[in-house]
């Protein structure tokens, strides 16, 4: 556990360190290309990008928690692992509208981060470390936000589809079954 902001324990699995190492190795050549002469400091910049990306995932999960708390839904924990985050709610939202609000909060947060990073990118001189970091955060947060909106469980878009089917059918179970099948189709 790394902390308890707002009373919610945040756990970071050791696989997140693998994620950080993976991002560092993958992003270092991009940094070296964008910032000529940076040398081995490219790994520090690439690792910083990995940390910022992890903080973006954490912001996504905190947004789910803030939305859930708005509806008096207790939060058990937030977990971060390799390529993923998860907010464990103590109970499901009691209506399709509330379920939609909780599900949408995460991707909306990533898209907002993407917009803010893009605005920052526009203000920075090209070819610098700030420029490469903000460009990377813009692209990755847009990708994470849009990917999470795909309409199939376990993604947030699947939760939105579940809520829609629930609203139409009147059955949370039917919503879960429909969104789970959509998740299988997306996986294929």
DSSP E strands, number: 3
Q: Spatial order of the strands in the main sheet?
A: 1-2-3
The proportion of strand residues reads: 5-15%
> Order of helices and strands, N to C?
EHHEEHHHH
Radius of gyration: 18 Å
Average per-residue pLDDT, rounded, comes to: 94
**N- to C-terminal distance:** 35 Å
Largest sheet: 3 strands, mixed
Judged by helices, strands and strand pairing, the structural class is: mainly alpha
Specify the overall morphology: elongated
Helix content: 55-70%
Spans of at least 5 consecutive residues whose pLDDT stays below 50 are none
Count the helices. How many?
6
Features:
188 residues, mainly alpha, three-stranded mixed beta sheet, 68% helix
Description:
The chain is mainly alpha-helical and 188 residues long. Helix content is 68%, strand content 9%. A three-stranded mixed β-sheet has the order 1-2-3. Strand 2 and strand 3 (84-89) form a beta hairpin.
Question: How would you summarize what this structure contains?
Answer:
This protein has helices at 15-34, 41-70, 96-123, 129-148, 156-169, 172-187; strands at 10-12, 75-81, 84-89. It has 188 residues and is mostly helical.
List the helices and strands and how they pair.
Blueprint: E1 10-12, H1 15-34, H2 41-70, E2 75-81, E3 84-89, H3 96-123, H4 129-148, H5 156-169, H6 172-187
Parallel strand pairs: 1-2
Antiparallel strand pairs: 2-3
Helix pairs in contact: 1-2, 2-3, 2-4, 3-4, 3-5, 5-6
């Amino acid at each position: 556990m790394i902390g308890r902001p707002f009373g919610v324990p945040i756990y970071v699995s050791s696989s997140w360190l693998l994620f950080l190492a993976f991002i560092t190795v993958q992003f270092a050549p991009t940094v070296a290309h964008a910032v000529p002469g940076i040398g081995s400091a490219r790994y520090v910049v690439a690792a910083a990008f990995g940390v910022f990306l992890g903080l973006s995932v954490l912001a996504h999960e905190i947004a789910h928690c803030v939305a859930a708390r708005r509806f008096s839904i207790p939060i058990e924990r937030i977990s971060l692992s390799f390529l993923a985050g998860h907010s464990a709610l103590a109970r499901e939202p009691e209506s399709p509208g509330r379920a939609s609000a909780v599900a949408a909060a995460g991707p909306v947060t990533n898209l907002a981060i993407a917009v803010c990073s893009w605005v920052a990118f526009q203000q920075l001189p090209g070819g610098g470390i700030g420029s490469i970091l903000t460009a990377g955060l813009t692209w990755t947060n847009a990708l994470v936000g849009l990917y999470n909106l795909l309409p199939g469980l376990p993604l947030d878009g699947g939760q939105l589809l579940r809520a829609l089917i629930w609203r139409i059918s009147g059955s949370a179970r039917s919503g879960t079954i429909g969104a789970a099948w959509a998740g299988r189709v997306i996986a294929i």
